[in-house]
Specification:
Blueprint: H1 21-28, E1 45-50, E2 53-58, H2 61-70, H3 79-89, H4 98-111, H5 114-119, H6 121-135, E3 140-145, H7 146-163, H8 169-194, H9 199-229, H10 239-245, H11 257-288, H12 290-304, H13 320-332, E4 339-342, E5 347-349, E6 352-354, E7 359-362, H14 364-367, H15 392-400, H16 415-432, E8 433-437, E9 445-447, E10 451-453, E11 458-463
Helix pairs in contact: 3-8, 3-9, 4-10, 6-7, 6-16, 7-11, 8-9, 9-11, 11-13, 11-16, 12-13
Length: 464
Amino acid sequence: MACPFGFEPVHPRPGPSTPNYLFRLLRGLHSWLGLLNRWDFQIPIGGVRFFGFHLFLVNLPAAVRLLMVDQVEQFPKHPFTLWVLQPLIGRGIFSVNGKEWERQRRLVDQAFQVAQLQRVFPQMEGATSDLIARLDPLADGRSVAIDAEMTLVAADVIVRTILSCPLAGPEAAMLFGDFANYQRRAGRAVMLRLLRVPQGLLNRYLATHAGRIRAWIRAAIEARLAASTTDQAPHGQDLLQALIEARDPLTGSSFSLEELLDQVCVLFLAGHETSASALAMAVYLLAHVPDAQERFRQEVVAALAGQEGPLGFEALRQLPYGTALFNETLRLYPPISFLMREALQPTTLLDQHCPVGSLLTISPWVIQRHEQNWSDPHQFRPERFLAEEASVEERRLAREAFLPFGLGPRKCPGAAFALQEALLVLAELVRRYEILPDPGHRPDLVARLTLRSVNGVQVKLRRL
């Protein structure tokens, strides 16, 4: 199917415009996308007062930059974000503000330097090789639950790169189930807080699955540390070792054991769930746009330069179209679709007065599909992110209205890690298989902590 004018892939249609915010919140119990109506994709900023909360949706790129870059200290993460994440990630880098966040960021950044990404590349290759081994028997034209496979490979990558060991069997099933249940409960818990359900009741609602995940990760860290002290594990070759060795350049301090647990839980949540979401939707898009798939395949073949083995670390940096394709996937399907900030001082954004304590929502889902930002915002066009093919306006928007990893000082430190993982997995898929759509399947997308399809993502694979 040629797509000279772009392809409009599946996306939930916004709900009907209604002044009844209670109705929208009730829709939001299923998916945060249910909060949106069609006007949200046209206005620069909107606000409502509900049950004593001052709620605002900020879409104008200049206003978003004010909140996330220029005056970031005045607009920290909202207490709702900190509260809903803490049962799982404790006081990790995603759930703290101020000086505590600044110290953690200085330490975490050391674990994601380019040299460290190169050191963990063999672990990524191992997880990808296991993925191909699982897919090969299925690559005969049958329908494949590619979202489940992307969830497993993303989790395997994160376990190997953090702990230098693979993930499989009952442990994997337990982790996936608890993550899915925690996400569903966390998404509902935020809506229920807006409906004034007591926080104490919701704390118990969130605790069970988060507690099991933290217990597994704590045991894995302790086993890894014990192995390190007896020379039974490679030193300096995984992210946990990088976090252990990180030192604050200002104070010389390092992470305590409890802080290590919190940071590893952050990496599991961010590196597993978000990567799985983006990878599944990238494969879905490749299946439905054969021209894009073939162009990427030819780029991969050229980068291999006749070699038969896996793509190397440097070869991944020779995939500009693959990078653009993944960025366009992130534009259409941002894994983190909603970000919440709190106003610490009275603020006026355009014509909207935001009192102290206002909940300011920045939605990558809305901004990256906003009719005043992007032309044909719902169409799949990777060329938007190719310097030699994008218009001047598209290049500007790629800087100002594209924020799948956030913006400013709190931009996700793992963005380069995620791109490296995605290019490796997707490149290995297209060089081996023709990826075909499953005509009987349509993903049903919901946004909670991350964006996922509740009925999975199905494609067909055929060996080349």
